[in-house]
Design goal:
Distance between the termini: 26 Å
Shape: globular
Number of domains: 5
Strand content: 15-25%
Number of strands: 24
Helix content: 25-40%
CATH topology of the largest domain: inorganic pyrophosphatase (n-terminal core)
Structural class: alpha/beta
CATH architecture of the largest domain: Alpha-Beta Complex
Strand order of the largest sheet: 19-20-21-22-23-24
């Protein structure tokens, strides 16, 4: 390529940059429409065709499958004792320990799954009369999972039986050490299996089950729930236990982003109904401080995923997990409220840390710059970041750049005089996109890493700081094996095309009747082409979010929409294709359905510009003739005096619309124009006076800039 052609390419990119900066960089994956099948399923179930299409996209194609999906309790489940080959052994080990008054110790984890699992087994085993205690490794000092120090402390304290929850499947050496010390070990975990399993007395892990098993998608808390129920049934002490631990199962499963399929879906429908009237004082207090509507008949996964779960996870990330265990096991309302308030305070600190680190990471990516498009992965490392929250930041960077992200920070070591210096380490987290397997990528450079682990979508790792360049190169090499350039955009998965006119309360209610939505069973996303942005404004303390009023082409009806974390794209272009979820909005006693935007792109076939007078756009004093309709129309979006405007200009007419739908229309050479929302109510104004003269000047400058 010649230098001349490179200059031309750069000029072209600059010419189009105003539009590119106003749009998220996305790729859309629209499910193929199956109108006939959707109509058949609609007739068989009474569901709207749009909702039937959603179910077909989830491989639910018959009335029988639909019934099982809508009412999972109607299906017979295989016994967990038949599915988990070590479950009977595990029950006997616990029963023997209880009968012999042998000390039992639980080793948990510091995330929401691990802490709810620990609380669940503590409650269950105390209910069954066990002598039980627990330990959770320190995120900062120990890292993930059971270790030799914990095992040896258990042995010193006379523990006879160890139960791991949400960890242990990769802890070969610590488990071997426990067996060597004469302790019995039951591993309950759900993480991916290593090549060599630890020498435990019993292992309960859904990854050992067949893909067809309804228990395959259990999180750690789900495995703990099965063990608790099976043991209580065997001892005849199930009464009074099921509901409290079902609530903990629900909280942990959703907070851990476990797939909402199989028994997870079946049990969560039950648990979500129970949570508003929780029997656990800690959950009652958490619901109160998180501002969840307690009047709901049942909670939604979003109530846990965005309100309760983060407050629990925040403690594990930057606080003491014992606080959460006390919250979820106490029977004292005062302690419950105190711990819930502490969770709230820690979550506020976590949010501040995330915002700070995210902005610093973006600055590094943009200003260094880091060549993530070339490498097909983004590796970003800096000192001073709290590694308890960088996993959250990694997820946000994936949303922003659409590329696998490996984010790390340097571990601080206190050096001792006259001792050789400790090699500097980097510790981090990874988050991925659909086409990239994080665990496989970490395996690909395992010889350069210290500890690492994870699964397809996420992972954790550590390595010598001196290896940073080599690790980056190796990860990039792996990425080039599985990622194409077109993969490097955030993916928006869409169920079906819909008209704004179809978005009503009936559609929303039918979608809600199919809850719970979540990982593996995602909330339906629809799309509508050729939508006009009537109003838009950035909202929130830092103008982070975007509030809009939208109108579909050919329709007079309008609908409100919200776009989270899209403030930077304001103002959006006037005509767009939109992708969205449906949301119910309650305000001042009124309820209406709004859109939550998850994707936008420029319309492929936008409406012809309306330059002649119409019923909803005011005309100027001298309406253009028919030949003017065919003339070239120049458009621009601009801000003036803190407000957003859209303008269009032909050879004879200029129109300027503000974010409230008012239009100023004037013909070339005229000193007066028309101002209003419609032709009938438009009034004449003198455009040579303030504030119109300055507004017209700003509009003409914007048109010149965007159309040069």
């Amino acid at each position: 390529m010649s230098p001349h052609s490179r200059i031309n390419d750069r000029q072209i990119e600059q010419d189009h940059s105003p539009i590119r900066k106003r749009l998220p960089n996305q790729r859309w994956q629209i499910a193929p429409a199956q109108a006939e099948k959707a109509q058949e399923l609609s007739l068989a179930t009474g569901l709207l065709p749009l909702v039937a299409q959603v179910m077909i996209n989830r491989d639910i194609a018959t009335a029988e499958d639909a019934q099982a999906y809508i009412e999972p309790e109607s299906q017979d489940l295989p016994s967990p004792l038949d599915e988990f080959k070590d479950l009977a052994i595990s029950v006997e080990l616990i029963k023997n320990a209880i009968a012999d008054e042998e000390a039992i110790a639980i080793c948990g984890d510091y995330d929401a799954d691990g802490m709810t699992s620990t609380a669940l087994l503590l409650r269950a085993l105390k209910h069954l009369g066990a002598n039980v205690d627990y330990a959770i490794p320190s995120r900062m000092k120990d890292g993930y999972g059971i270790n030799n120090r914990i095992v040896e402390e258990f042995a010193e304290n006379g523990v006879g039986l160890i139960l791991t929850v949400d960890n242990g499947i990769s802890a070969y050496e610590p488990i071997a050490r426990a067996i060597e010390l004469g302790l019995s070990v039951i591993i309950t975990d759900h993480h991916d299996l290593p090549e060599k399993l630890p020498p435990a007395d019993a292992i309960l892990n859904p990854k050992l089950l067949s893909d067809a098993s309804p228990y395959k998608g259990l999180a750690g808390v789900g495995v703990a729930y099965i063990l608790a129920i099976a043991t209580a049934q065997s001892l005849g002490k199930l009464k009074g236990l099921t509901n409290p631990i079902m609530e903990l199962f629900t909280l942990g499963t959703i907070a851990d982003l476990a797939p909402l399929v199989g028994v997870n879906r079946r049990w969560l429908k039950r648990g979500l109904r129970a949570l508003p009237n929780s029997q656990l004082l800690g959950i009652q207090a958490l619901i109160q401080v998180a501002g969840v509507d307690e009047a709901q008949k049942q909670l939604k996964p979003d109530d846990i995923g965005f309100r309760l779960g983060p407050r629990i996870n925040a403690v594990g990330r930057i606080g003491d997990p014992q606080m959460v265990i006390e919250l979820l096991t106490t029977d004292d309302s005062g302690i419950a409220l105190e711990r819930a308030m502490q969770c709230e305070q820690i979550n506020q600190k976590r949010r501040q840390l995330c915002e700070q680190i995210e902005q610093e990471a973006i600055a590094l990516v943009e200003n260094t710059p880091i060549p993530w498009k070339r490498d097909r992965i983004l590796v970003v490392v800096a000192a001073g970041w709290h590694h308890g929250v960088i996993g959250i930041v990694a997820s946000r960077l994936v949303e922003r750049y659409g590329v696998p992200v490996f984010i790390g920070t340097y571990e601080d070591h206190e050096e001792i005089e006259e001792q050789p210096p400790t090699p500097r380490m980097i510790r981090g987290s990874a988050r991925s996109i659909d086409e990239f397997n994080v665990f496989d990528a970490l395996n690909y450079c395992s010889d350069l890493l210290g500890k690492y682990g994870g699964h397809r979508a996420a992972g954790g790792f550590s390595f010598l700081a001196d290896n940073l360049e080599q690790v980056t190169q190796r990860l990039s090499e792996f990425a080039h094996k599985c990622l194409e350039v077109e993969h490097l955009k955030p993916l928006v998965k869409i169920d079906a095309q819909a008209s704004i006119g179809q978005v009503d309360y009936e559609l929303y209610q039918q979608i809600e009747s199919l809850q719970p939505w979540g990982i593996g069973n995602s909330t339906p996303v629809f799309w509508t082409p050729n939508v006009r942005v009537i109003e838009q404004r950035a909202i929130g303390k830092t103008q982070t979010h975007l509030k809009l009023t939208l109108q579909e082409a050919g329709s007079a009806s309008q609908i409100k929409a919200l776009a989270w974390r899209w403030g930077e794209y304001c103002p959006l272009p006037e005509c767009l294709d939109i992708a969205y979820k449906l949301k119910e909005n309650h305000w001042q006693g009124n309820t209406n359905i709004e859109l939550e935007l998850v994707g936008v792109k420029l319309s492929q076939a936008p409406q012809a510009p309306q330059v002649q007078p119409s019923n909803n756009i005011p005309a100027s004093n001298n309406p253009p003739n028919n030949s003017d309709v065919q003339s070239n129309v120049q458009k621009a979006v601009f801000t003036h005096s803190g407000r957003i405007y859209v303008c269009s200009k032909t050879t004879k007419e200029l129109r300027i619309r503000n974010d409230r739908g008012n239009v100023l229309a004037l013909s070339q050479g005229d000193r007066t124009g028309l101002l209003g929302k419609s032709r009938e109510v438009a009034k004449q104004v003198n455009v040579t006076q303030a504030p119109y003269f300055q507004l017209i000047k700003a509009a003409l400058q914007a048109i010149k800039k965007d159309n040069c």
